[in-house]
Each structure stands twice: as C-alpha cells, then as structure tokens.
Specification:
By secondary structure, the chain is of the alpha+beta class. It folds into two domains: about 70 residues; about 110 residues, Ribosomal protein S6/Translation elongation factor EF1B (Alpha-Beta Plaits), CATH 3.30.70.60. It has five helices and four strands. It starts with a helix and ends in a 6-residue tail after the last strand.
C-alpha cells in the first residue's frame, strides 16, 4: 500500500510540475509575446508620429518665415529687386553704366554682354523652369573715354556702392589715350536648370 501511495505522489508531483510549466508557457504565449509584438507596433506608430510632428514643425517654421518676409517694408523689397533682379535686365545695365560713367566725368564708348544671355534665354524657356533657383552672373565689357586717375578711383567707388550687384573682374587703364576698358560681372536670379549653366 505504501508503494501505491508513493507512485500516486510521484504522478501527482509530475502532474503539478507539468501544469506549472504549462501555465508559465501559456502565459508567455498568451500574454507576454502578444504584448511585445503590440509594443513593437506601438513603437513604430510612435516613431511615425514623431516624424509627422517634425514635418509639421518644419512646415510651421517655413510659414513663420514667409509671414516675416511678408511683413518686410515694400521699400526693402524694391531695393532687393533692384540689386538682384530676376533676369539679366541688360537695358537697365546699359542705362546704369552710362549713368556711372557720366557721374564720374567720362563717356561710355562701347558696352557688350557675354554669352550668358544665350544661357539665360535657354533657362527661361525650359520646361523645368522654376525647379532650380540660383544666382547667376552676366559678363559686361565697357569702354570709357575721358579717363584720369582721379576719375578712375571715382568710377570704381561708384561701381562698388551701386545698388545693382556688380563686380569688376579686371580693367585696363591707358593714361596716354585717357581710355579705360573694364571687364565686369552683374548678378541676377535665374529660375532654370543647373545643367544650362
């Protein structure tokens, strides 16, 4: 009889151990594992929301910047348009150079523009216009007469302080003939392809 109770106790011990293992394994598969997969999904959702929030913050920052630019006084907008126009504006450049020469006491004999005008026309009429906005330059060659050293300094000073963004690349001053040849650049904003450049 003692042997029977012992085997019954052993069987019950094994059954209890088996049930404990089954409960723990079942708890893992029914509670912990689904929770971990749910937590992964929740983490992915959280990351997605964080990304969307960042995009919205950047968009808000953009619109704040736009609003601040819209508050700029119209005088400053006009100054900006004059200093960096949206196209080469060669007619204004001719008038501007003639005015600079006369105000320095010289006469403008000749003015010519570089090949950049052809590139400008290509970029304006391209189908990809307005995709790439960039600052470009147009070459200007000017011949002036009636030049003295004092007038040369005055002319250079006037070009540097001119409203239109320009720079002198090189010049040749011949004192005996009182002539000056100037190689310059004027800048403008271009809406076109970078590959046109």
């Amino acid at each position: 009889m003692e042997k029977k109770t012992r085997t019954k106790k052993i069987h019950w011990n094994w059954i209890v151990v088996f049930l404990c293992i089954a409960i723990v394994a079942g708890g893992y598969f029914l509670i912990i594992r689904p929770y971990s997969s749910k937590s992964k999904l929740l983490e992915e959702e959280r990351l997605k929301l964080v990304k969307e929030l960042r995009v919205k913050e950047e968009e808000m920052e953009f619109w704040k910047t736009v609003a601040s630019y819209q508050e700029v006084d119209e005088r400053y907008v006009e100054l900006m348009r004059n200093s960096l126009p949206l196209f080469p504006n060669t007619i204004d450049l001719v008038v501007n150079m003639e005015s600079l020469a006369q105000s320095a006491g010289m006469d403008m004999e000749e003015i010519s523009f570089g090949n950049e005008m052809e590139e400008y026309e290509k970029s304006v009429y391209s189908t990809d216009a307005y995709r790439n906005v960039e600052v470009r330059d147009i070459g200007i060659k000017v011949s002036l007469s009636g030049m003295t050293y004092t007038r040369l300094k005055d002319f250079v000073r006037k070009v540097e302080s001119n409203l239109r963004l320009m720079e002198i690349r090189q010049f040749q001053f011949i004192p005996s003939s009182q002539s000056l040849s100037v190689d310059m650049k004027a800048y403008y904003i271009s809406f076109g392809n970078k590959k046109d450049k």
